[in-house]
Amino acid sequence: MADLKLENITKRFKKVIAIENLNFEVKNNEFFVLFGPAGAGKTTTLNIIAGIYTPDTGRFYMNGKLMNLVEPAERNVAMVFENYALYPHMTVYENMSSPLRSPMTHITGEENIRREVTRVAEMLGIAQLLERRPSELSNGQRQRVALGRALVRKPEVYLMDEPIAHLDAKLRHMMRAELKEMQAKLNATTIYVTHDYLEALSLADRIAVLNKGQIVQVGTPDEIYYRPATEFVAECFGDPAINIHEGELVNQNGDIYVRMLGQVIPSKVPGNVVQKLKAVGRNIHVGIRPNDIQFYLDGPVAGTITGKVYSFEPLGAKGVLNVSFGNELLRIKAPVNTQVTPDQPIQVLINMENAIFFDCEKRHFLARSEQLGEDSAWLN
Ligand code: ADP
Ligand code: MG
């Protein structure tokens, strides 16, 4: 049981401001993800919570109690780092049970220790490895042992710093699913750091997006994906990244359309969006995700605009089709077996129900249609 609160936390290293005026709260049992590019301040934030760093200014509370001056050992948090350090001369069992042998834990007696280690090892699928040494394990197995060592302690808070970032893509995918399952069983507050947007979206109850030491947005995965607070957030959550283009609102017989990519897009701007754009004038930025655009290689299709194939990049299971409109490019997600040749005409269907509108100066979120459901489409 633990809730956390960070209030106006700032931490500098000489001239570098690692985090500035951070404010967020983590609820009891929440799986809270800190997301951001390298150098954003994620690890510094975890270290403040763990007590390894003292903030220069601001307050950190756990269960309502001010923690700034509480020693790390007295905080009842467990940290899992990307660079897991296992004792090489000890077996998996000895590695996992070592935290239970500290005088701080309430577990005593070898039987009780063995029961606890076995429970966690079964949860992580490593029960058959307990007598091996780290050198006899794969990377993925070692990572599980490191996780296991944090989990046996039953702390109030787990802090995980990119715990699966260095695993290969396939293993990461598998571990992501397992972490999700584990999260349901753990019943503990977890703060999980990652720079992988899919990991963030699929694991988190809520995500805090950090950039250059500051929080840009805190929200549920659906809020972050469908209502990104800024263009930066929109660009971080998706691969290939969202298309963002300059647009101009035009009135045609009382209906509002967008002129972008050198033409008027034949899809009405939804009424509820028009209401929200009224105050900002004609010029806006329009974001459309590559998986929200359809394309057609033959036959005239109603409602499309016509561009030219620029290039096609097969990327694993999917491909990215780059389509040119004058000197602007549109990225479209396409099946990996798509057959196209450069300069071939291509018809593109853009639905303004899917568009995300941003302010062209501040690059802040303005509006998105409320007609469409928010259906966690990133999982597809
Ligand atoms: P992240 O984990 O998001 O990659 P960090 O919290 O590690 O980011 O770092 C945030 C900023 O603070 C970076 O500019 C980094 O270089 C700086 N920084 C972090 N730790 C130290 C340190 N111990 N000494 C000096 N600068 C540091
Ligand atoms: Mg880090």
TrEMBL record:
The UniProt entry's coiled-coil ranges are none
Under Gene3D superfamilies, the record lists: 2.40.50.100, Nucleic acid-binding proteins, P-loop containing nucleotide triphosphate hydrolases
GO function terms (MF aspect) = ABC-type transporter activity; ATP binding; ATP hydrolysis activity
Asked if Cell cycle is a keyword of the record, the answer is: no
Per the record, the domain of life is Bacteria
Top EC category: hydrolase
**Cross-referenced CDD domains, in alphabetical order?**
ABC_MalK_N
Q: Which GO terms describe its cellular component?
A: ATP-binding cassette (ABC) transporter complex, substrate-binding subunit-containing
Q: Which UniProt keywords apply?
A: ATP-binding, Cell membrane, Hydrolase, Membrane, Nucleotide-binding, Translocase, Transport
Q: Give the EC number.
A: 3.6.3.20
Q: Which PROSITE patterns match?
A: ABC_TRANSPORTER_2 (PS50893)
One biological process term in Gene Ontology: carbohydrate transport
Protein known as: sn-glycerol-3-phosphate import ATP-binding protein UgpC
Originating organism: Neomoorella thermoacetica (Clostridium thermoaceticum)
